[in-house]
Design goal:
By secondary structure, this protein is α+β, with helices and mostly antiparallel strands. The chain has one domain: 3-Layer(aba) Sandwich (Aminopeptidase). About 35% of the residues lie in helices and about 35% in strands. The chain starts with a strand and ends in a 5-residue tail after the last strand. Bound molecules: coenzyme A. Coenzyme A (COA) binds next to strand 5, helix 5, strand 6 and helix 6.
Length: about 200
């Protein structure tokens, strides 16, 4: 049996030392997504220390390497009333507040801000994206147990069809498009309900 463990990045840094962590993460490779790669190499530890987002590493104890990571945070998600189908309106109305003037809805959602596999690991030893996502959802369920919350958001670059399939297969639905001025990219915001385990 493979021994995988999930570490909050700052705790892992304390355990192995920051220099060792930095050296391990400098080999973390995500060829299809430079932002996901840059974040884990250069930003995740500091952001976690500041609690602006929390990053978790999935560590293979036998390989002594990081197989993947994800970054979580809570943020407000506003959706314009006119963009909602009646089914989606019923869903979001249960978990959000309606702006009486505009009819828009705002919900606090859990955001999976980053998620990525380490593609520098030999292919047969890489972890599956489904397993990685399930570990992220487990962490969110632990947060849900403490403070509630029901919706999980991911933002996918709109032209990445493979990611649409990955998230759809895992229960996410496209809700909204968002244009980001800073990186000049169109994003597809996808949402799923986080069921609690009884
Ligand atoms: C998202 C992810 C965790 C899913 O895991 P997975 O299903 O095990 O992923 P795989 O490595 O099997 O990739 C599945 C397919 O998606 C493609 N793909 C994955 N990420 C992609 C990306 N960012 N852009 C374009 N294509 C991508 C792969 O090339 C592969 O294509 P193929 O079927 O033609 O070989 C993983 O693909 C990943 O780490 N991607 C890079 C980081 C990323 O883009 N994260 C999502 C940010 S919203």
């Amino acid at each position: 049996m493979r021994k995988l463990s999930v570490w909050r990045i700052d705790k892992f840094a304390k355990t192995v030392g920051e220099a060792a962590l930095s050296s391990t993460l400098s080999g973390f490779a995500v060829p299809m997504n430079a932002e996901v790669e840059d974040f884990i190499r250069n930003k995740a530890l500091q952001a976690t220390k500041l609690k602006s987002s929390i990053s978790y590493l999935v560590v293979d104890e036998d390989l002594a390497d990081v197989l993947g990571y994800f970054t979580l945070l809570v943020k407000p998600f506003t959706i314009q009333s006119k963009q909602l189908s009646s089914k989606n309106r019923r869903l979001i109305a249960r978990f959000s507040e309606e702006n009486a003037e505009t009819g828009d809805y705002t919900a606090s959602v859990y955001l999976i801000a980053q998620i990525g596999k380490n593609y520098s690991i030999q292919e047969e030893l890489q972890m599956s994206g489904n397993d990685l996502l399930n570990l992220a959802l487990d962490k969110l369920r632990a947060a849900q147990d403490l403070i509630g919350g029901k919706l999980v958001l991911v933002e996918r670059e709109a032209d990445r069809e493979k990611l649409l399939k990955f998230y759809s297969d895992n229960g996410f639905m496209s809700w909204n498009g968002r244009y980001d001025k800073k990186d000049q990219l169109q994003y597809d915001q996808m949402i799923r309900v986080l069921e609690s385990v009884a």
